[in-house]
């Protein structure tokens, strides 16, 4: 298990990077943390001739939260690691669901090197981050020698492990809007082992005004081909928080109807559909229960009555 | 007297070296050696029509490309059937490099040797093999059904078939008021040590000799087979097993195709050639274990006492049978477990399939046996409405020795030599809180939680012969060098054998250096497998140390003018019992034992103070003696010792997600007196962890084409720390009468009953019969649905 | 692919490992794990899976545990690499984490152990007083096939104690 021959380029500026990408568009690949790419190279499932290592490029390491309250945005540069995002207090305040989901991404040693933007570019429907980008209405800034464009998650993700990026394009940064005031957000997944891709996972943003539900958006991992967002605003709007149990059934039915899981050696499609419903139900009830302003789960990070991280 | 080290929790003497990066594993040897990589079959069953290697030959850095045609003499013949058995009706083994056919995905076809592994893999990728596809046989059902045949010339896929009887099972079943039948299944897993296999072979053209480093579990066996296959004198081959990164059985088969091919290449190229197995290779071309389909018919009375047990099982042995039928044989001989079964019949078929071959994995077939018996015990309890522990208690063997009436893997009649099952069960029930569980269940139920408790009992034949040896030398420095032919892969041999030797020789443990798995010093050994290391080599070294001690006392007696019987050795000093003033260091005895004319060091000079004038009419070395304070001794037992144990598990199953969580795991273990309880506990912990893997996570998932779908750590779910429960242990130490130290093996114990105990607990939590392991949440969820619909068959 | 063979791209790199700067000529595709083991002779770093799951090859990069099998040596330039030998290479004088493993019987075959040692060495700085559950979580990214993890979990807590004692002295 050794990679095929390849040349590694180590540009230090964005312009240099874009030139290299343009030059090697045919069989070049961007290398950042490499935590998804290098296993594929070691197994020789891919054999690019050139890797453009962006980790030494200046200007791609921005991690910031800026903007007026209620309209703040988190900017994550292309070389920022999962761990940096996960450890950021500012991020946790602005968009707690991002850090919550990140803690499910593999293990710390992988998150120390893997980048958040890299996960987005990898576009794995089992991955937590592409879904969170979609769910929170985020976007990416994309550059090439031909110019710059901004893509929403919906525009970016076109299939499993497939994006609308051209081969000479680089995602320079991702932007995650802060959660609006009054919203409550949470993420949960069930995996066979800690750190594995979830058999199913759900991210949820619940808009609440006083004790009344105003809106609900759900995103999923491992049970849809691309990170699609399900808007259940109509189904739940106007419900009182204390009626969560009754509303939950409606939500679960809608979710099970919406997703399109496949079966594999770890779980059947039917089980994944069922499981997504269970996670949805638990997460929804949890969010209706929590009382902190942005839905941070103060009693437990997990669903249901359990006090510890659960795994299937 | 010094404190006896036997039985002490001595921290491991190998640890500081291994922890600071000074371990030396096979891939650490000869870092710059040229490297081999293999082209392996991507198809499960095919004829090879043509191999085109021209692309590979053009790659810069490629040194040689070998196909079967390039293998010389005996090396081109089929690999040996290592352990023949009369039950084997169709022995088939593979070649070092495939000849004309391939029978599983991963079978080696071409070897590329290049400057380094990167280039070797580049070249291997450029080799074209043309195939004619055949229908693959995958799984027990397809093999048994027999419309597709793995090996040409056979009419079915039966590799081996045997029936063994104890008493008359038909009348046993007839006499029983109750009869139950169970269909059971056990899936494939694998040893999966963290270090794959590896070999580094060096040919010395001047000497005409081969030196091989291998991560094998039997350096002596590998040496013999390489000498035979390369057709060179045994004295021209040496095999050294350095540190080994875990084995668990998979490294006992020999020679692996790669070991032979690499040795051939080393000789042909007059070079050092290295092959280090990577993880993907390990998944698809080493060995697996465990798939069996089983049928049990049991007759019992109103009290739950078994009258007769009739068993058939079908064992998937993969494409080849180089290690014989050890796995199904062990299954067949361990089914009766710790119970008195008045009549018993076992019949098995070992079947070829187009998948990776099956050789022993920790427990070696015994986990399957326990699964049959313990699922049966639970079924009897359920049928009669009796407590599951009580049913077991009523059937226990209570008198020892207890002849089993079956021929075991060592060829001897099996016999449970020792144990106290009643006490073990008492201890287990106390440890897990068996009798208090119903109140816990009620409490959990009130919280909306669903819990269950289960148990499993087992016996394990350990410490099989035929023999093992020890070699001890006391240097003139006082340092004690110890050799065992056994290889070592985590069992703390450097510590436990030092304890045994230091006790007998009366020296500080720090002066004892243990060497393992090196045929240059001790070419007689059988290997490390079957929980035999401590029993066999431990006793051999105990006997060897006794001989060294006797010689030391005799020599010291002459110098000190004392009767050897009046002497003792304390802290490396030979002294008259109770009289410290009359003493000499063991180091000095070593000097005296070897009447060299050269005083080469301090202790040699010091020893002259003790040298007695030899009588003029006696030679320096008396007839029948050898120079040096050095002895070799062997231990060969009558039969295997039989260890035993009992496990209990408490699980919680999520009513909605069908998630299975082990809340508690308790072990009672009886391996006789423990040389080092720290090490025994470590062995039990590791065994249980592998058992948990086999119960809930690990499974080799083949598709119908014979492709292994989960050949990576991403998809083969070996448990992390987060998946393994805290393990609670207690011990019973009933000594074995079969060896001087009274010890029984401990290496495999933890793994054997784990899947059964967990199945028992899940069944208790769910109220659904559990007949197949491993069990994952998705499967359990579907079983619930089927059970709810009254579909008992689908719920296994 | 054929074109590249024989004209394998190589680079001259400067790599800081265990506080020593090395100048090396390596193929661009050579993994950090292989360069550590083969070019620098630091064979304490073990290769168990080459797809980033097992953790045997874990080293510290600027103080944080990473998989050396998922990095090209070329890209480790400009970083400080610390291997198990850098944590402690003297069997007579093991580091606190290494001593904790001895005390707790935290290893058997020793193959995965260096990856645990480098992981835990960094972890107990981050969390100087882990609970048993935290200790278990901390080592849950590394596979061990021998120990059943229980004694490794104990070693995490023991190592934290030893480090605290060391800091007090």
From TrEMBL, chain A:
Record-linked SMART domains: CO_deh_flav_C (SM01092)
Alphabetic keyword roster: FAD, Flavoprotein, Oxidoreductase
Listed Gene3D superfamilies: 3.30.465.10, CO dehydrogenase flavoprotein, C-terminal domain, Uridine Diphospho-n-acetylenolpyruvylglucosamine Reductase, domain 2
Pfam families (UniProt xref): CO_deh_flav_C, FAD_binding_5
InterPro entries, A to Z: CO_DH_flav_C (IPR005107), CO_DH_flav_C_dom_sf (IPR036683), Diverse_Substr_Oxidored (IPR051312), FAD-bd_PCMH (IPR016166), FAD-bd_PCMH-like_sf (IPR036318), FAD-bd_PCMH_sub1 (IPR016167), FAD-bd_PCMH_sub2 (IPR016169), Mopterin_DH_FAD-bd (IPR002346)
Alphabetized GO MF terms: FAD binding; oxidoreductase activity
All copies of domain FAD-binding PCMH-type, residue ranges: 1-181
Entry protein name: FAD binding domain-containing protein
Origin species: Brevibacterium koreense
TrEMBL record, chain B:
Enzyme class: oxidoreductase
Keyword Heme found: no
SMART domains from the UniProt entry: Ald_Xan_dh_C
Gene Ontology molecular function: carbon-monoxide oxygenase activity; iron ion binding
SUPFAM superfamilies: CO dehydrogenase molybdoprotein N-domain-like, Molybdenum cofactor-binding domain
Alphabetical UniProt keywords: Molybdenum, Oxidoreductase
Database matches in Gene3D superfamilies: Aldehyde oxidase/xanthine dehydrogenase, a/b hammerhead, Aldehyde oxidase/xanthine dehydrogenase, molybdopterin binding domain
Known EC number: 1.2.5.3
Aldehyde oxidase/xanthine dehydrogenase a/b hammerhead domain boundaries: 20-138
NCBIfam families documented for this protein: CODH_aero_grp5
Name this protein carries in UniProt: Aerobic carbon-monoxide dehydrogenase large subunit
From TrEMBL, chain C:
Residues of the 2Fe-2S ferredoxin-type domain: 11-87
Entries under Gene3D superfamilies matching the protein: 3.10.20.30, [2Fe-2S]-binding domain
Matching InterPro entries: 2Fe-2S-bd, 2Fe-2S-bd_dom_sf, 2Fe-2S_ferredoxin-like_sf, 2Fe-2S_ferredoxin-type, 2Fe2S_fd_BS, Beta-grasp_dom_sf, Diverse_Oxidoreductases
Example of a GO MF term: 2 iron, 2 sulfur cluster binding
Pathway(s) the chain acts in: Alkaloid degradation; nicotine degradation
Domain of life: Bacteria
Keywords on record: 2Fe-2S, Iron, Iron-sulfur, Metal-binding, Oxidoreductase
Protein name, per record: (2Fe-2S)-binding protein
């Amino acid at each position: 298990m050794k990679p095929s021959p390849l040349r590694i380029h180590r540009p230090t500026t964005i312009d240099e990077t874009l030139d290299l990408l343009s030059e090697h568009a045919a069989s070049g690949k961007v290398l950042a943390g490499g935590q998804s790419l290098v296993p594929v190279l070691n197994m020789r499932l891919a054999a690019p001739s050139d890797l453009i290592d962006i980790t030494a490029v200046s200007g791609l390491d921005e991690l910031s939260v800026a903007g007026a309250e209620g309209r703040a945005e988190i900017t994550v540069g292309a070389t920022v690691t999962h761990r940096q995002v996960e450890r950021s207090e500012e991020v946790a305040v602005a968009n707690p669901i991002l850090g919550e989901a990140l803690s499910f991404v593999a293990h710390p040693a992988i998150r120390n090197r893997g980048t958040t933007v890299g996960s987005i570019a990898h576009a794995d429907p089992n991955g937590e981050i592409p879904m969170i980008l979609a769910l929170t209405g985020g976007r990416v800034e994309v550059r090439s020698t031909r110019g710059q464009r901004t893509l929403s998650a919906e525009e970016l993700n076109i299939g499993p492990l497939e994006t609308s990026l051209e081969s000479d394009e680089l995602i320079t940064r991702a932007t995650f809007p802060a959660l609006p005031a009054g919203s409550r957000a949470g993420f949960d997944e069930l995996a066979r082992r800690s750190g594995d891709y979830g058999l199913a996972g759900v991210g949820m943003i619940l808009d609440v005004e006083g004790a009344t539900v105003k809106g609900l958006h759900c995103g999923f991992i491992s049970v849809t081909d691309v990170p699609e967002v399900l808007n259940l605003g109509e189904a739940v709007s106007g419900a009182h928080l204390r009626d969560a149990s009754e509303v939950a059934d409606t939500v679960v039915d809608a979710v099970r109807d919406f997703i399109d899981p496949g079966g594999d050696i770890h779980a059947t499609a039917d089980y994944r559909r069922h499981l997504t419903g269970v996670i949805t139900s638990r997460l929804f009830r949890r969010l209706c229960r929590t009382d902190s302003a942005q839905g941070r789960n103060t009693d437990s990070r997990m669903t249901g009555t359990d006090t510890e991280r659960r795994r299937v | 007297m010094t404190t006896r080290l036997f039985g002490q929790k001595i921290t491991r003497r190998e640890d500081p070296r291994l922890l600071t990066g000074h371990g030396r594993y096979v891939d650490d040897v000869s870092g710059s050696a040229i490297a081999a990589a293999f082209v392996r079959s991507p198809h499960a069953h095919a004829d090879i029509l043509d191999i085109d290697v021209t692309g590979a030959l053009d790659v810069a850095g490629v040194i040689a490309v070998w196909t079967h045609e390039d293998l010389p003499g005996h090396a081109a013949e089929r690999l040996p059937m290592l352990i023949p058995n009369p039950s084997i009706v169709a022995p088939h083994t593979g070649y070092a490099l495939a000849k004309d056919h391939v029978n599983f995905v991963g079978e080696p076809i071409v070897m590329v040797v290049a400057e380094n592994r990167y280039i070797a893999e580049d070249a291997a990728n450029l080799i074209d093999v043309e195939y004619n596809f055949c229908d693959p046989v995958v799984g027990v059902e397809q093999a048994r059904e027999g419309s597709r045949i793995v090996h040409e010339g056979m009419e079915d896929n039966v590799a081996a078939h045997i029936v063994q009887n104890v008493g008359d099972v038909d009348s046993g079943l007839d006499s029983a008021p109750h009869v139950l039948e169970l269909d059971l299944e056990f899936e494939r897993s694998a040893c999966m040590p963290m270090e794959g296999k590896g070999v580094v072979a060096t040919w010395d053209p001047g000497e005409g000799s081969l030196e091989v480093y291998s991560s094998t579990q039997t350096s002596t066996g590998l040496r013999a087979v390489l000498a035979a296959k390369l057709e060179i004198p045994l004295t021209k081959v040496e095999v050294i097993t350095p540190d080994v990164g875990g084995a668990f059985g998979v490294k006992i088969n020999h020679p692996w195709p790669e070991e032979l091919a690499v040795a051939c290449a080393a000789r042909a190229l007059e070079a050092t050639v290295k092959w280090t197995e990577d993880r993907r290779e390990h998944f698809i071309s080493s060995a697996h274990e465990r798939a069996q389909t089983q049928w049990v018919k049991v007759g019992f009375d109103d009290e739950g006492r078994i009258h007769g047990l009739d068993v058939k099982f079908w064992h998937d042995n993969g494409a080849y049978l180089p290690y014989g039928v050890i796995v199904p044989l062990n299954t067949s001989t361990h089914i009766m477990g710790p119970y008195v079964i008045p009549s018993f019949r076992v019949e098995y078929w070992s079947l070829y399939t187009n998948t990776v071959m099956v050789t022993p994995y920790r427990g070696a077939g015994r986990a399957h046996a326990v699964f049959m018996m313990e699922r049966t015990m639970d079924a009897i309890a359920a049928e009669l409405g009796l407590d599951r522990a009580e049913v077991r208690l009523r059937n226990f063997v209570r008198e020892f020795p207890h002849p089993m009436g079956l021929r075991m893997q060592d060829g001897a009649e099996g016999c449970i030599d020792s144990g106290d099952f009643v006490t073990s069960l008492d201890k287990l029930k106390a440890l897990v809180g068996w009798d208090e569980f119903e109140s816990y269940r009620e409490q959990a139920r009130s919280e909306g939680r669903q819990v269950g408790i289960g148990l499993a009992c087992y016996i394990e034949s350990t410490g099989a012969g035929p023999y093992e040896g020890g070699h001890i030398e006391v240097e003139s420095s006082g340092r004690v060098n110890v050799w065992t032919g056994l290889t070592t892969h985590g069992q703390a041999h450097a510590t436990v054998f030092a304890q045994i030797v230091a006790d007998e020789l009366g020296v500080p443990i720090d002066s004892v250096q243990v060497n393992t798995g090196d045929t240059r010093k001790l070419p007689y050994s059988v290997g490390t497998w079957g929980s035999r290391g401590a029993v066999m080599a431990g006793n051999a070294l105990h006997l060897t140390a006794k001989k060294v001690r006797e010689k030391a006392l005799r020599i010291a007696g002459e110098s000190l003018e004392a009767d050897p019987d009046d002497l003792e050795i304390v802290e490396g000093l030979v002294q008259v019992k109770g009289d410290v003033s009359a003493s000499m260091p063991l180091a000095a005895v070593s000097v005296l034992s070897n009447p060299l004319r050269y005083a080469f060091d301090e202790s040699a000079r010091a020893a002259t103070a003790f040298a007695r004038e030899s009588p003029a009419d006696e030679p320096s070395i008396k007839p029948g003696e050898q120079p040096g304070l050095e002895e070799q001794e062997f231990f060969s037992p009558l039969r295997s010792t039989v260890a035993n144990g009992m496990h209990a598990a408490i699980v919680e199953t999520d009513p909605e997600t069908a998630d299975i969580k082990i809340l508690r795991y308790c072990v009672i273990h009886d391996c006789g007196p423990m040389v080092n309880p720290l090490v025994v506990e470590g062995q039990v912990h590791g065994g249980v962890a592998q058992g948990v893997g086999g119960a809930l996570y690990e499974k080799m998932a083949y598709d119908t084409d014979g492709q292994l779908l989960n050949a990576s750590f991403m998809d083969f779910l070996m448990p992390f720390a987060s998946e393994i429960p805290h393990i609670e242990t207690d011990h019973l130490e009933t000594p074995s009468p079969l060896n001087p130290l009274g010890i029984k093996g401990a290496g495999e114990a933890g793994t054997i009953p784990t899947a059964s105990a967990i199945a028992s607990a899940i069944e208790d939590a769910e109220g659904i019969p559990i007949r197949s392991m491993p069990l994952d949440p998705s499967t359990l969820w579907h079983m619930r649905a089927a059970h709810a619909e009254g579909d008992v068959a689908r719920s296994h | 692919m054929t074109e590249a063979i024989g004209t394998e791209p190589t680079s001259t790199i400067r790599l800081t490992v265990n506080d020593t700067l090395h100048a090396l000529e390596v193929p661009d595709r050579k993994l950090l794990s292989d360069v550590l083991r083969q070019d620098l002779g630091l064979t304490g770093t073990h290769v168990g899976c080459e797809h980033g799951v097992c953790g045997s090859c874990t080293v510290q990069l600027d103080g944080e545990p990473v998989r050396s099998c998922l990095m090209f040596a070329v890209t480790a330039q400009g970083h400080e690499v610390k291997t198990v030998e850098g944590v402690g290479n003297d069997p007579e004088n093991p580091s606190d984490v290494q001593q904790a493993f001895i005390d707790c019987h935290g290893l058997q075959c020793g193959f995965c152990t260096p990856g645990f040692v480098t992981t835990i060495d960094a972890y107990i700085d981050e969390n100087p007083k882990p609970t048993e559950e935290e200790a278990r979580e901390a080592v849950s990214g590394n596979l061990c096939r021998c120990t059943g993890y229980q004694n490794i979990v104990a070693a995490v807590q023991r190592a934290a104690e030893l480090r605290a004692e060391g800091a007090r002295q």
